[in-house]
């Protein structure tokens, strides 16, 4: 396991970050603890959760795990989602931000998090108010670093500018969806991160298991269990994004590349994301201990640069030509193999 700086900070994180959005939902408490323990035994030191995951149960389960290992854990959580019945129980206004971080700390059983993130933009709150609220969280000692998730490039620029203008703590990381089949972050977000020294921790590097070849029949019924199941909170996004004929065709070409070079689909999907020099870490979720163990093995698997480059060509064609996706132009951060 390799450890890297998160953006321009001095914080060292494992390139593999364990995602916990299933902990307390599709994965019960006992299995969640087993998965986290196995991940840390494998060299992982980074966990990402959120106050909305499994209605707070994810943070509670992560809290149980870190209780005796707090000093070795780089702990990240997020706030912004609706958690509570009141009109101010959502967003990133000054009232809710402090309430949300305090509630997260209570569920996690700790007095600080290493990284506190905005889960998604809040267009109802002025960015100046938001950055002041997150600056207050840092000054109160409740978070060591701050970041954002699901921000576009222009939204990140606006936030960084407001922070710089007011002398506030700056966002140190961004968390976008990114994989071979979904590359919107390359258009505007990655260039901003590269220019401003913002760390990138991507989620969904395996497209919710789609790039693993789990689903090979476009005409088949939707599966039960996993990211495409009705009981997963974001299932509709996965279905509308990946469950279409062009993406199935791209996945089959991807599988052909794995067979040609004798590498596992999991390893190629993960190595492709890691090959982009802008990416600091990958958030990899696992519903079962077996999946976690498979991920750790794949993480160390040797993948030749030729396989990465051929996979890139497949993704280029899909992303540039698919009619339901925006065209990419002058991509400044292509996902080609690192030297």
From TrEMBL:
It comes from Candidatus Lucifugimonas marina. The keyword Cell membrane does not apply. Signal peptide: none annotated. The keyword Oxidoreductase applies. GO terms for molecular function: oxidoreductase activity. Residues 17-314 form the NADP-dependent oxidoreductase domain. Keywords: Oxidoreductase. GO terms for cellular component: cytosol. It holds the Pfam family Aldo_ket_red. This is Aldo/keto reductase.
């Amino acid at each position: 396991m390799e450890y890297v700086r998160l953006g321009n900070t001095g914080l060292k994180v494992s390139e593999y970050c364990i995602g916990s959005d299933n902990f307390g939902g599709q994965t019960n408490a006992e299995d969640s603890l087993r998965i986290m323990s196995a991940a840390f035994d494998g060299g992982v030191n980074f966990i990402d959760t959120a106050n909305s995951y499994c209605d707070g149960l994810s943070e509670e389960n992560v809290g149980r795990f870190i209780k005796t290992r707090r000093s070795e854990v780089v702990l990240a959580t997020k706030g912004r989602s609706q958690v509570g019945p009141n009109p101010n129980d959502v967003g990133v206004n000054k009232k809710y931000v402090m309430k949300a971080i305090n509630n997260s700390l209570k569920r996690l059983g700790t007095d600080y998090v290493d990284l506190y993130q905005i889960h998604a933009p809040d267009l109802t709150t002025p960015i100046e108010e938001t950055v002041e609220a997150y600056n207050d969280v840092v000054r109160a000692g409740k978070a060591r670093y701050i970041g954002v998730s699901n921000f576009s490039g222009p939204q990140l620029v606006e936030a960084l500018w407001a922070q710089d203008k007011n002398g506030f703590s700056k966002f140190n990381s961004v968390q976008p969806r990114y994989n071979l089949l979904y590359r919107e972050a390359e258009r505007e977000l990655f260039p901003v991160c590269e220019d401003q020294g913002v760390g990138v921790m991507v989620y969904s590097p395996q497209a919710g298991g789609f790039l693993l070849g789990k689903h090979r029949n476009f005409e088949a019924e939707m599966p039960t269990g996993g990211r495409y199941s009705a009981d997963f909170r974001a299932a509709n996004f996965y279905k509308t994004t990946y469950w279409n004929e062009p993406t199935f065709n791209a996945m089959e070409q991807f599988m052909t590349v794995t067979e040609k070079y004798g590498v596992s689909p999991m390893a190629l999907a993960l190595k492709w994301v890691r090959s982009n020099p802008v990416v600091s870490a990958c958030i990899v979720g696992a519903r079962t201990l077996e999946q976690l163990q498979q991920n750790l093995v794949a993480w160390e698997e040797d993948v030749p640069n030729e396989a990465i480059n051929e996979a890139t060509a497949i993704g280029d064609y899909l992303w540039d030509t698919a009619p339901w996706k925006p065209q990419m132009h002058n991509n400044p951060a292509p996902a080609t193999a690192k030297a």
